[in-house]
Design brief:
twelve-stranded mixed sheet, 20 helices, about 30% helix, alpha+beta
Length: about 700
């Protein structure tokens, strides 16, 4: 006869015997055959008859369906349990996983790091990786059933011992227990990815599974375009759990032990503790005891049935490869902080609403470019967020749309992918493109890696993009690395957004793209939020290699200024004199006179509040000896022709290194910078702020010096 699908019968039977502690001779005795017959089945030299299969099922305590399909272990397998690492024999103690403190316990940081990892594991390069975040709040019976499923009674003594320790992780654990028991609730945060590699490889040897579940500082990412390189990003999963607990369900792109679906495991991060007189080192694993290990209690991953996966809230929507991470006891420090001021009276259950919206915001801010397609390129990523309570969806699944979160930047990238950019903007909605050089150094400082041409894109700004006049930088995986302000903008510059595409993000035909990817990846810290000096850059290239990045930044800013500078027109001398006194969020050179020049506006941030007023925060640069000036901030509407209407201030307050007296700024003695904040009077607006621009000047022609 022919047995059906699943794992080959011989390896499957051998696995069941090991897990049940039964020898080949034991099985042979129970079914009334010889040990040689059992050995022949295990080695694949023969297969049992139908009547023999019935006896094998009875001996293993399972049903015929399990033996025929062989997609799950028999009920005779060792029970799922927790294995806690024993304390070190030399008395060493770790009071937490140091990697978890490399990042904040912030769902925005989690979204950035976890989604980056999913991007790096994209399987079919012609299709996007799909990532879904699900917040699920449990209470009452649903919470009780979940605790039973994760063997909570076995964990509780360890949690209580950890919570009694007066140190950082212990206090976090105590807060998590108080939240669960005091409020009868537990927040689960699940991250699913599809079209990803999954946790492939052996439980212990080198591979994706071991890198995530067993090891620290092991990224298993060899491609130069990968976002991660330190192996630290996965620590954000445990950092976001107040209970230090993460469960995993992976569908593999490559079979392991003849299977691909429902590979489950859990990992717990606790500090050193003593329970029942015995010392425990810290981490623990949730799985099936491994009969092949020296200590039979060591837990390894197991192949779960669909019902067990459902009870653990880890059911995946399809058999497409990828992994589901379930963060147990998820919390968000930023949401908690927000809830202590303006939202102080908001009910506790609104925390999942805040977390939902912060996840969406973080995904849109960091991955708008990865979610943008154009030309013949599909997006690299699709992302969505949903929120449930006790199995009922309370906020429907919403896909993050980059055209809504970052409209201007998305327009710029899409124009590049579509091939519709222009040399210089002459109409609204256009995207100007130029290239800038990145001279990649040779390894260990020898020679040159070639001149890479990075792409600069510039387009007009939209209020939804956030602060204007910024450059967003990225490389091959199209995750935002840094958003930087462009200094030295000329007066009269219209608000814009710029994008710098380096490495493979600059296009398949960009020269030396791979070399640029490798160089820039080495220049990123664990947070992947800038390019600069790192130890890896110093070791792989040279101590001065970071200067190439400084040159790239300077050249990018120069090109952006050139692209946004209005075409110069002849002006009357009087107009020139007036122009020298105006500043729009940029620098203006001090007057070339023996006396100290006036202060200048270094940076200007503005937004429109709910009443329709402009809210402005301005930073001023004060030249040496210029603290005696008394400039008066003046707000004007930006118009294309004619005089700019002056707006009154409803509020003008000092923030740093200054005072406001009768509408003028009085600087602290010796100050080199100062900051003030102002809100315009809506009654003096001739048009609504939404339909106008704003210019802030420092008027110094009246009452200038004391």
């Amino acid at each position: 006869m022919r047995l059906d699908t699943g794992m080959d019968f011989g390896p499957w039977l051998a696995r069941q015997l090991k897990q049940s502690g039964m020898s080949q001779a034991d099985l042979a005795q129970r079914i009334g055959l010889t040990r040689a017959a059992v050995s022949a089945w295990i080695t694949g030299r023969a297969t049992p008859r139908e009547e023999t299969i019935n006896k094998i099922a009875e001996a293993l305590g399972t049903d015929l369906g399990t033996i025929h399909t062989r997609t799950a272990d028999t009920l005779a397998g060792l029970p799922i349990s927790w294995y806690h690492r024993p304390g070190h024999a030399d008395g060493g103690r770790e009071f937490g996983n140091a990697a978890a403190f490399a990042f904040d316990a912030d769902v925005g940081v989690l979204a950035r790091e976890a989604t980056q990892n999913s991007l790096d594991e994209r399987l079919d390069r012609a299709q996007p990786v799909r990532v879904r975040y699900t917040l699920h709040e449990l209470s009452g019976e649903a919470l009780a059933r979940f605790r039973d499923e994760i063997r909570w009674d076995d964990l509780l003594p360890h949690y209580e011992a950890a919570a009694q320790q007066d140190q950082k992780v212990g206090r976090m654990i105590a807060a998590g227990l108080d939240d669960m028991y005091g409020r009868d609730r537990l927040v689960l945060l699940r991250i699913d990815d599809y079209n990803a590699s999954g946790l492939t490889g052996d439980d212990y040897e080198t591979g994706r599974f071991a890198a995530v579940v067993r090891r620290q500082l092991d990224s298993q990412k060899t491609g130069s375009a990968a976002g991660g390189s330190y192996g630290l990003g996965k620590a954000t999963l445990w950092a976001t759990s107040r209970l230090g607990l993460v469960l995993m369900n992976s569908t593999l792109s490559e079979p392991h032990e003849g299977r691909t679906e429902r590979r489950l495991v859990g990992r717990l991060e606790l500090p050193w503790r003593r329970v029942d007189g015995k010392a425990w080192a810290g981490p623990a694993w949730f799985g099936r005891p491994d009969p092949d290990a020296e200590d039979v209690n060591v837990a390894r991953s197991w192949w779960a049935d669909e019902e067990s996966v459902e009870r653990l809230y880890l059911t995946r929507e399809s058999a497409e490869p990828g992994t589901s991470f379930l963060i147990v006891g998820a919390h968000d420090v930023a949401s908690l902080v927000e809830g202590t001021d303006a939202n102080a009276n908001v009910e506790d259950d609104d925390s999942v609403h805040r977390m939902h919206h912060r996840l969406k915001e973080a995904l849109g801010r960091n991955f708008w470019a990865a979610m943008t397609g154009g030309g013949n390129q599909r997006p690299l990523l699709e992302a969505s967020v949903r929120t449930c309570r006790n199995g009922v969806e309370i906020i429907p699944e919403t896909r993050v749309d980059p055209r809504e979160t970052q409209p201007s930047r998305t327009r710029a990238l899409q124009a590049f992918l579509d091939g519709t950019t222009v040399d210089r903007m002459t109409e609204s909605g256009q995207v100007a493109m130029a290239t800038v050089p990145l001279v990649v150094p040779g390894r260990t400082g020898r020679g040159s890696g070639g001149e890479h041409r990075a792409v600069v894109l510039v387009t007009e700004a939209d209020d939804r993009d956030g602060k204007p006049n910024r450059v967003t930088t990225m490389r091959g995986n199209r995750m935002t690395v840094r958003i930087g302000w462009v200094p030295g903008l000329p007066v009269g510059t219209n608000p814009f957004q710029a994008v710098l595409l380096a490495g493979r993000a600059a296009g398949d035909d960009a020269p030396f793209a791979d070399e640029a990817e490798t160089f820039l990846r080495a220049a990123e810290p664990p947070e992947h939020d800038k390019w600069g000096q790192t130890e890896e850059l110093r070791v792989l290239y040279s101590p001065s290699a970071y200067r190439r990045i400084g040159a790239l930044t300077s050249e990018t800013n120069r090109v952006v200024r050139d692209l946004v500078t209005p075409v110069k027109k002849e002006r009357k001398a009087g107009s020139d004199r007036l122009r020298k006194r105006l500043t729009v969020g940029g620098r203006r050179k001090a007057r070339l006179t023996p006396a100290a020049g006036p202060p200048t506006l270094e940076e200007l941030d503005a937004r429109i509040d709910d009443s329709g007023a402009w809210c402005v925060t301005a930073e001023m640069k004060i030249p040496a000896g210029g603290d005696s000036w008394r400039p008066a901030p003046v707000a004007k509407l930006d118009v294309r022709s004619g005089p700019r209407p002056v707006l009154s201030w409803s509020e003008l307050v000092a923030v740093h290194n200054c005072d406001i007296v009768d509408g003028t700024v009085r600087f602290a003695p010796g100050a080199r910078t100062a900051t003030f904040r102002g809100t315009t009077d809506v009654s003096t607006h001739p048009v609504r702020a939404q339909f106008s621009g704003l210019v802030v000047e420092l008027r110094t022609d009246k009452g200038t010096q004391a």
